[in-house]
Amino acid sequence: MMRQFMGNSYLFGSNAPFIEELYESYLDNPASVPEQWRDYFDALQNMPGAVTRDVAHAPVIASFAQMAKQNKLATSAVGIADKRQIGVLQMINAYRFLGNRWAQIDPLKRQERPQIAELEPSFYGFTEADLSQQFNTGSFHFPNGQQATLREILESARETYCGTVATEYMYLSDIGQKRWIQSKLEPNRSRPNFSVEQRKRILERMTAAETLEKYLHTRYVGQKRFSLEGGESAIVAMDTIINHAGTAGVQEIVIGMAHRGRLNVLVNTLGKQPAMLFSEFEGKHAADLSAGDVKYHMGFSSDVSTPGGPVHLTLAFNPSHLEIVNPVVEGSVYARQQRRSEAEKLCALPVLIHGDAAVAGQGVNQEMLNFSQTRGFGTGGTIHIVINNQIGFTTSDPRDLRSSIYCTDVFKMVEAPIFHVNGDDPEAVALVCQIAVEFRQTFKKDVVVDIICYRKLGHNEQDEPMVTQPLMYKKVNAHPGSRKLYADRLVGLGVCSPDEPDQMITEYRAALDRGELLYNPVLSGYTRKFAQDWSPFLKKEYTDECDTSVPQAELRRLAQRLTDVPSSITLHSRVAKIIEDRKAMGEGKLPLDWGMGENLAYASLVAEGFGVRLSGQDAGRGTFFHRHAVLHDQNREVWDEGIYVPAQHIQENQAPFTVIDSVLSENAVLAFEYGFATAEPNHLVVWEGQFGDFANGAQVVIDQFISSGEAKWGRLSGITMLLPHGYEGQGPEHSSARLERYMQLCAENNWQVCVPSTPSQIFHLLRRQMVRKLRKPLIVMTPKSLLRHKDAVSTLDELSDGRFRTVIGEVDPLDPKAVTRVVLCSGKIYYELVAERRAKGIQNTAIVRIEQLYPFPNEAFAEELGKYPNAQEVVWCQEEPRNQGAWYWIVSRQHLARSLGKSHHLYLVSRPASASPAVGYYAKHQVQQKAVIEGAFGELNQDVAPSR
């Protein structure tokens, strides 16, 4: 019998999902599968080396694959009863996999149901006569045991998977997660059983959402607000998530969303007073911001009451770049989680609200999902809400929106379950949101709720969608509205009296007329346990002055801790030499190199109570083999063992030190770090580009958040960007960090742009970021070749007695009166200029380093220039082409000219203007570099850039 069964035609590779499901049913209950399958699975369990019943079922699939390779899968007959039972289980499985394609999730009912043969009983050989026959239901949840008629099974499968909820989850590799989802959907057939009070609450939320939009539409005609009309169920979703999360122990929720429905969420979810919103519409809102932002970009915070206790809500500020706020939210949540114990981390929850076209179209989501389960970035799962208008931008042809079936298909890369739900069924929306909260809290994974709705108006209120979407908007204009449909349903069920829905509208409008909220859950005066105090950093005037020195005895202690490697760690020979050298540096026997200066800065900060977080694609070791903040045992046999991080062992009760080699992403990772920095003022948050120009991939984060966040939103951030920069002949992509781009964004003391040239300078610069009572972003052009340059060194005295010097003057013993030319420069080129001058014995030229380009140190520069009374030629020398680097910014802002006298003339020595950052041919690079160095000391072209 077994031999005959093994030759069954059902055992082909195309049936692997069915076999897997059948085996899962067998593991749950052996009696739920046909006898021959049960005998086979029993035999498989008893095979030598077989897995136990509690372990994954992959060996079953593997065994069938092996039989297929050996051509052992022949065709023979199986009993008719067994074939029919197998067909029932296959059909149930098909509905779990494919039922979403037949689901009634489109409020506009635009698409015809596709032909899917696997969802028809006839595909499995059943006829009308079979509908009354009893079959085993396998793992499908039935209230009266595991026997039901084919009709009952078919109706239950269709109600569960083809109603107003369409669930995609069978791709999950964890059977426990699949069974969990089935247990939430199948017993109630994806239908909630809400009380009268709960249903009225849902109607009240729908009423609030719709009435606010209509009120704004009539009161502020033609003004942009990116209306939520047609997607009002999103407010029900947020209400459900917040209240259910509060019951589940969540204490903080950070929300990220773009424009659509944002004003509605601000008022009806976060409790922003309508009077405040009206003031913004009327242009009366006077914020203490130099720039401010439009109302539908603004964030908000509040504390609201839930059945489980107070929950702090934060809606992140967001620019027009839609999905870019998502990793910012993740970083903010991660910072909030880090304040808590490991057991309490799930108390902070990220909720991201997406648009259908943007979630599929913008790559930042893939980058974010890629790091969602990694060390240093995972937040224990995110709840994603898609307000799916089925249109994207107004002019989009549906054929051009994406290449996948659903806009949410990107989430399958992290095996997030996806609940598609009809926005016209707000009860179904509430149900799946409850399930989403429970799934996240149970499995610490992402989960998606895709609300299929429509957009009543155009992309904005000045748009006319009928011009490009006549077919769709004929249906939209004929739609009575989601709130009306639900109100009529409740009246029909006797839940509400006939006049109750209209009375809700009247009461809500009356409250809006008063500038108030009819229902406001906001708690006043509530003090959160884990709130951060930003008051020491608010409204601070910019200053460079700060004592960043560290006593020499403490420096020696820190150096000893950084170089005291456990004997169990066998270092690579090159790394061992570096650690030995650093030990000597700490003892004053060798001068400090860049890596030691940087590591001492981190160690001193964590010893003083400031956390340090450093990330980048090669942050632990350092792209240029200089940092070695993470040490690896060369003899380790397990990946996650034999790793030692010295800065984590400075002392007891030190602040945290985290160093993470990030995924190969700039955009999402930098956004994450910015989000972390905006939530944690007492952490030095550092992102390092593998090469400086890699930041090009994160330009939107730099432009829209880091450089302008304070001016637009009042959001402070001390994020630090380390960008390796310098012309060493490595070609266009590995030479320039595009300094000119950062200089162009400089204004209003929005950040600092520095080019430190010694280990002591990076030591003091990094310490200044935390020790000074000021939080401004810091952009650092860091070196490559200088990391091991014999002259780019410092002493312990420079760390213990010094500070960050915005300008470093001449170091050679020149006669100031003999100096007729002053060469100004920044970064690596300084050492080449000094070498050239010394080689040629030039005595009339002083070289001055500008270590901080912005805010420009006018006083320090003027003082240095004043030391040379006979100098008439002032030269700005840069490696970058003329149209790049700092030159144009320095000239256009007249920073140098302010300190120049009438006898001074300003000149430029640089590479010629170029469309590319650097040449790709090394020989040509050498010619250009030689010309720049020699040009700084040679005859100057009077037409280059005279100061007057």
From TrEMBL:
<keyword id="KW-0786">Thiamine pyrophosphate</keyword>
<dbReference type="InterPro" id="IPR005475">
    <property type="entry name" value="Transketolase-like_Pyr-bd"/>
</dbReference>
<dbReference type="GO" id="GO:0004591">
    <property type="term" value="F:oxoglutarate dehydrogenase (succinyl-transferring) activity"/>
</dbReference>
<comment type="function">
    <text>E1 component of the 2-oxoglutarate dehydrogenase (OGDH) complex which catalyzes the decarboxylation of 2-oxoglutarate, the first step in the conversion of 2-oxoglutarate to succinyl-CoA and CO(2).</text>
</comment>
<comment type="similarity">
    <text>Belongs to the alpha-ketoglutarate dehydrogenase family.</text>
</comment>
<dbReference type="Pfam" id="PF00676">
    <property type="entry name" value="E1_dh"/>
</dbReference>
<feature type="domain" description="Transketolase-like pyrimidine-binding">
    <location>
        <begin position="592"/>
        <end position="789"/>
    </location>
</feature>
<dbReference type="InterPro" id="IPR031717">
    <property type="entry name" value="ODO-1/KGD_C"/>
</dbReference>
<dbReference type="Pfam" id="PF16078">
    <property type="entry name" value="2-oxogl_dehyd_N"/>
</dbReference>
<dbReference type="Pfam" id="PF02779">
    <property type="entry name" value="Transket_pyr"/>
</dbReference>
<dbReference type="Pfam" id="PF16870">
    <property type="entry name" value="OxoGdeHyase_C"/>
</dbReference>
<dbReference type="InterPro" id="IPR042179">
    <property type="entry name" value="KGD_C_sf"/>
</dbReference>
<dbReference type="InterPro" id="IPR011603">
    <property type="entry name" value="2oxoglutarate_DH_E1"/>
</dbReference>
<dbReference type="InterPro" id="IPR032106">
    <property type="entry name" value="2-oxogl_dehyd_N"/>
</dbReference>
<dbReference type="InterPro" id="IPR001017">
    <property type="entry name" value="DH_E1"/>
</dbReference>
<keyword id="KW-0560">Oxidoreductase</keyword>
<protein>
    <recommendedName>
        <fullName>oxoglutarate dehydrogenase (succinyl-transferring)</fullName>
        <ecNumber>1.2.4.2</ecNumber>
    </recommendedName>
</protein>
<dbReference type="InterPro" id="IPR029061">
    <property type="entry name" value="THDP-binding"/>
</dbReference>
